[in-house]
Design a protein that fits this description.
Helices cover 32% and strands 24% of the residues. The chain is an alpha/beta fold. The strands form 3 sheets. A 9-stranded mixed β-sheet has the order 2-1-3-4-9-8-7-5-6, with helices on both faces. A 5-stranded parallel β-sheet has the order 12-11-10-13-14, with helices on both faces. Strands 15, 16, 17 and 18 form a 4-stranded mixed β-sheet that branches. 42% of the residues are buried. The structure holds xanthosine-5'-monophosphate. The site of xanthosine-5'-monophosphate has 13 residues, from loops.
């Protein structure tokens, strides 16, 4: 499909991904490219527009990432954001210098609503600023289209050349009318029509996969997580029974999870594919016996997964393609311009070494997570799978502190099931980033009826997070915690105490190990 594309040129800032996501939310396809891309390569992408994003230091320093003057002469609309705006000013002969005071946070910006970037935006718009340098003087030909008490040139434009620049960040939520500004750029300046929709992605991807695979055999490691589920369904739609999905039940899944995955993908499910469920529970428990160190547990679980998968792959024989659920953030984070490093997630990492295949296919390689979910809904995958919260590859192995045993797995599965049931009943699911029960390795004294007990403590965890890099403990209403606690101590044998984890990340991590 020859879709309208906007390119985000990355000068080393931290917002490139977010900008690309925001542009795609305007239904315009967007890719991130390094600033070192050549003009020829850039033109070959036939972009409708280019966005310059943040950089590390001052544009006028020798070593700072820059661009040539020629890029502004290609006739392609350009929007400079933050560092990108200063770079545009610097290269085209304006003046950039250290501002008398840095601006940080939400700032009222007076904008010229006659300028195309600020159409349908309030004259005093609240925007998010973060800068120490500023444009002291716009280059010749540019109009100043916004200012703040600190910033004489908070935005500038040269409409005849379709060059625009904003000092603030339209892509962050704190810029209240940022979405409108980005829409103005992609629709009104670049002339995009908004042809990036998930229904057309699904249709095109299916067609492309069919062409690429032909009559070949395809193998997919299915974890039941969002990415591998969507990848599998897409492939099933494309090549049906040429696809085999292997689902390894390592005995460290949540309660009923294995059966739920089988229900959707197995013989009685809705999809045309070969489904193999490998019951490897006892193997894992044996391997994990006596192991207490978290990283060692992770390694064992990962290595065992590869071994189980290898055995299954041998039974199937050589395949033509191996599916990986790589998504766009993995591609960006693993280094632009280089090929994507295979995810360290144990479900896929290492597989290429043990499976005989000709080529890897990554059907979701260009999608952000929310787009993967939209594609999933488009493909008719049940909502509980599409909106499933993240579950670590090593599963309950990292939610049981210390040695993993079958008995402990049962305890944490039951406790977690109760917790999730009550969270759902209270309608809190949508508000939480991740929540689960973990089994601490602590046993303590309690009393049950007339008897002394000496049992385990279960810890409940719930966090709010936008990126899983940082998180804060969620404030679960006391009534809910109280009810969960009562149910766990009454219904789960071996538990006499329930604790709530109030720690954020940092200093804690989301998982316990
Ligand atoms: P932490 O515990 O590092 O978790 O704060 C951040 C996010 O990553 C998930 N996580 C893992 N995912 N393999 C995975 O596939 C792992 O070993 C692993 N450890 C943590 C965790 O569930 C959370 O979403």
């Amino acid at each position: 499909m020859n879709k309208e594309t906007v390119i985000v040129l990355d000068f080393g800032g931290q917002y490139n991904q977010l900008i690309a996501r925001r542009v795609r939310e305007c239904s315009v396809y967007c890719e991130v490219k390094p600033y070192t891309i050549s003009l020829e390569e850039l033109q070959a992408l036939n972009p409708k527009g280019i966005i310059f994003t943040g950089g590390p230091n001052s544009v006028y320093e020798e070593t700072s990432p820059g661009c040539s003057r020629e890029i502004f002469e290609l006739g392609i609309p350009i929007l400079g954001i933050c560092y990108g705006s200063q770079l545009m000013a610097h290269v085209l002969g304006g003046r950039v210098k250290t501002a008398p005071v840095s601006e940080y946070g939400r700032t009222e910006v007076e904008v010229d609503t006659k300028d195309v970037m600020f159409q349908d935006v309030s004259p005093k718009s609240v925007c998010w600023m973060s800068h120490t340098d500023y444009i002291a003087q716009a280059p010749e030909g540019f109009h100043v289209t916004a200012h703040t008490p600190v910033c004489p040139v908070a935005a500038m434009s040269f409409p005849e050349k379709r060059l625009y620049a904003v000092q603030f960040h339209p892509e962050v939520m704190h810029t209240e009318e940022g979405r409108q500004m980005l829409e103005n750029f992609v629709y009104r300046v670049c002339g995009c029509t908004g042809d990036w929709k998930m229904d057309s992605f699904v249709e095109t991807a299916t067609k492309d996969l069919r062409e690429k695979i032909g009559g070949g055999k395809v193998l997919c490691a299915l974890s039941g997580g969002v990415d591998s589920s969507v990848a599998a369904v897409l492939l099933s739609k494309a090549v049906g029974k040429q696809l085999t999905c292997v689902f390894v039940d390592h005995g460290l899944l949540r309660k009923n999870e294995g059966d739920e995955v089988e229900e959707v993908f197995g013989a009685n499910g809705a999809y045309e594919l070969n489904f193999i469920r490998v019951n490897a529970r006892q193997r894992y428990y044996e391997k994990l016996r006596g192991v207490t160190e978290p990283e060692e547990k992770r390694k064992i679980i990962g290595a065992e997964f590869i071994r189980v998968f290898e055995e299954e792959a041998k039974k199937i024989g050589a395949v033509d393609f191996l599916v990986q659920g790589t998504i766009y953030p993995d591609v960006i984070e693993s280094g632009l311009g280089k090929s994507a490093v295979i995810k360290s997630h144990h479900n896929v990492g290492g597989l290429p070494d043990v499976v005989e295949f000709k080529e890897i296919i990554e059907p979701l390689r260009m999608l952000f997570k929310d787009e993967v979910r939209k594609a999933g809904l488009e493909l008719g995958i049940p909502k509980h799978l599409v909106f499933r919260q993240p579950f670590p590859g090593p599963g309950l192995g990292v939610r049981i502190v210390g040695e993993v045993t079958e008995e402990k797995v049962k305890i944490v599965q039951e406790a977690d099931h109760i917790y999730r049931e009550e969270i759902a009943r209270a309608g809190l699911e949508q508000n939480l980033g991740q929540y689960f029960a973990a089994l601490t390795n602590m046993r303590s004294v309690g009393v049950m009826g007339d008897f002394r007990t000496y049992d385990y403590a279960v810890a409940l965890r719930a966090v709010n997070t936008s990126d899983f890099m940082t998180a804060e403990a969620a404030q679960i209403p006391w009534e809910v915690l109280n009810k969960v606690t009562n149910r766990i101590v009454n219904e789960v044998k071996g538990v006499n105490r329930v604790l709530y984890d109030c720690t954020g990340k940092p200093p804690g991590t989301i998982e316990f190990e």
